[in-house]
TrEMBL record:
GO biological process: glutathione metabolic process
EC numbers for this chain: 2.5.1.18
Residue ranges of domain GST N-terminal in the record: 1-82
Residue ranges annotated for the GST C-terminal domain, each copy included: 90-212
GO MF entries: glutathione binding; glutathione transferase activity
Annotated organism of origin: Ganoderma sinense ZZ0214-1
Coiled-coil ranges per UniProt: none
The name this protein goes by in its record: glutathione transferase
Length: 212
């Protein structure tokens, strides 16, 4: 049975999983969950995703939510070992990959997704942006990227010296920074970050996903 991804074409977390599906050349069906109809809050949806959020994956009856967990599952099951994640038998490489994945979740996502909520999603939802809070998030993110700069001076990618999921996880919210005219990922202030971002954001998987 073809993989089914329950998500939304405008959702960043759905895009994260779609990128990995493209990386692995996996055919899948996107089952569109209509936010306007609040389908993500319907009992049949929350029976699978108790937080009422997209995406979730249905792999022949096995259902999984949380975009990053789905990406790891897909990579482990469908040919991503040595391509998107290290061989789990290699403990040190796996640990460095997990370190990078954790950096994204704790040092990037809270600020980049917070900024996207303030500056991109709130206006669409008819909510009022809080410019002071957005400015605070921006300052936090800029400081965190100094840490990225130091890390990327020692290793090529966030999860080691090869591209991994830890890099790809940044793509949806990283790309939304540009439309907010926040150039931290492309600025000469952080040359290692700039080089890293230019490389990962031009991968054909992301070019394809972000064009839709
Ligand atoms: N940690 C979750 C976050 C999921 C999430 O925030 N999904 C958003 C779309 S990107 C959503 O469904 N928002 C609607 C809501 O929270 O009501 C994941 O990575 O899957």
């Amino acid at each position: 049975m073809v993989l089914k991804l329950y998500g939304n074409p405008h959702s960043t977390c759905t895009a994260r999983v779609r990128t990995v599906l493209e990386e692995l050349s996996l055919p899948f069906e996107l089952v569109v969950v209509d936010f306007a109809k609040r389908e993500h809050k319907a009992p049949e949806f929350t029976a699978v995703q108790p937080f009422g959020q997209v995406p979730y994956l249905d792999d022949d009856g096995f259902r999984l939510f949380e975009s990053r967990a789905i990406c790891r599952y897909l990579a482990l099951k469908y040919g991503g070992i040595g391509k998107l994640i290290p061989d789990p038998a290699d403990l040190e490489k796996t640990a460095v990959f997990e370190q990078g994945a954790s950096v994204e979740l704790s040092n990037f996502d809270p600020f980049a997704s917070g900024l996207a909520f303030e500056n991109v999603f709130k206006p669409v939802l008819g909510l009022e942006t809080d410019p002071a809070f957005a400015e605070k998030l921006k300052g936090f993110l800029e400081n965190k990227l100094a840490g990225y700069e130091a890390l990327l001076a020692k290793q090529k990618y966030l999860g080691g010296n090869e591209v991994t999921l830890a890099d790809l996880f940044h793509l949806p919210y990283g790309t939304l920074l540009k439309i907010q005219k926040i150039d931290f990922l492309e600025s000469d202030k952080y040359p290692n970050v700039k080089k890293w971002w230019a490389e990962i954001s031009s991968r054909s998987s992301w070019v394809k996903v972000s064009a839709r």
